[in-house]
Amino acid sequence: MLLEVVLTVAESKRLIAKGVAAHPLVRRALKDGMVIIARGSTNGYIAEEILGGPIDKPGFLTGRTLPRGHAPRKRKSEPIGEMVLKRGKVIEDMSLSDAVTDLQAGDVFMKGANALDYAANLAGILVGHSEGGTIGAALPTLIARKAHLIVPVGLEKLVASDLAAASDLITEESGGSASVPALWVISNATIVTEIEAVAILAGVECVHLASGGIGGAEGSVRLLVSGDEEGIGHARALFESVGGEEPYPI
Asked: How many CB atoms neighbour CB 226 within 10 A?
C-alpha cells in the first residue's frame, strides 16, 4: 500500500522531534545516561517531545536564517541555554562545557544542521564563532568518549553542492572575512530526517518524492510511504498528529 503526504516545515520539525525522542539511542541515554540538546529550531521541538510540554522555542535558538532584509524582533524572554538531562531529569544551570566534560560512552549529544547531503550521509553546520561554536566545543570529546552525535535535520536542508567542496571554497576564498560563516561538514553522525522518523514511529518505508509549494507550503516536502495495511495506518495517524503544526514563532 502507498500513502502520500505533504508536510510543511513546522510539521516536519514536529515529526522529526517525535522520531528523535523515540530513537533507541536516545531512549537508552534518557534511561541510563546523559542527553545534551544543543540550541536550535528543530531541537526546540525535540526538547518539547522529551519533556512532554512546551518551551519558549524562540529562546532556544542560536543562529537563525531569516528572509533578506527581515529585522529580527526584540526577544520577549531570556535566551535558554543548552538542555542537559541525566537519567531523564533536567539538570538546571549546567554549562555546556561542564556537560560535555561529563559525557560517557553511549551518551547522546544533539545538534541541528544547516545543510544536508542525504545520499552521502553528510551534514553541514554553519559556524560563525571564532572558536567553533557549539559543535567545536563538543565534537572532540564526543569522539574521544564514544558518545553519539545525533543530527536532526529536515529534508528542506538538502543542497545541490558538494559540501566538502563548498567548505573548502569558503576557507580558500573568504579572505578571513567574518561576514562569511565557515561550513563544518559532519560525517560521523546519526542523521534523523523525516524518513528516519517515519521508519522509527510507523515501521514503514518512506521516500522523499518532491519539495516546495505555495500558500504556506514553501519549503515543504512530499513523502511517499509504502507498507502493509497496519503500517500505513500507523503512518496516517502519525501524519495526522503533526498536521496543522503552527509555523515557527519568530
From this structure: 14
